[in-house]
């Protein structure tokens, strides 16, 4: 039985599936008015796009059992759509190919499907069509991914600074109720970083999973040549627990050492417990704290420092 904390996600995916199958007509006995059911059409598609496949190969690709594949291929053979030949290199294996009639049937089906999907897509406003295609591509990428998502770090690209400000402002508002004063502060930090960027003394990283930004961190020069600052660390909620924060902080520390800094400082607030735990594990020590009223709340600001 699905637990309560997961039921909402399950319900959302089931609702999508109902809308999707209804709009594409996947529940109709025959797809797009053709003589083929959905499963028959998918098998026909595989036959048209593979070179001499076996029944087992198609079954694995479509996750269909051997009995269903066998019955469908028999119907295709009786209708003169598929040709079955023994594999000369493997006596117990048979190779499949479409006949001329089978290719003609596939081409007719493909044309009807292209037309039906085109009518569906271009019946939408351009803005919604673009959103639909992006969502479809994302769904395909997720379902076809073979490995667990891994974290990678990259340097800044155009658009990153604005996204960092946006995501941090939204997350801190959602999780801590901070107002737009924090958004303004984050915007000033990234603007100052960009305008006075010194590649010999500063750096920044974006963390990605599945090519999606899931976190950031900045290394900024301090008031003296010996001291640098760690700024704007954040990790997306869904990526927490995957080591993103640890990786970002370690990259920042390593770069600070490479650039010859002797000390790395950061300022945070006591309510940010997850970030503070990462700092402590990395060796930072609490050196100062003081109450302040910022972002619409009474907070306790903290300064942490790491000797490099």
From TrEMBL:
Gene3D superfamilies: 3.40.630.30, Winged helix-like DNA-binding domain superfamily/Winged helix DNA-binding domain (1.10.10.10). It is an enzyme of class 2 (transferase). Its EC number is 2.3.1.-. InterPro entries: Acyl_CoA_acyltransferase, GNAT_dom, HTH_MarR-typ, NAT_camello-type, WH-like_DNA-bd_sf, WH_DNA-bd_sf. Residues 151-308 form the N-acetyltransferase domain. One of its GO terms (molecular function) is acyltransferase activity. Residues 6-141 form the HTH marR-type domain. The keyword Lyase does not apply. This is GNAT family N-acetyltransferase. It comes from Sphingobium rhizovicinum.
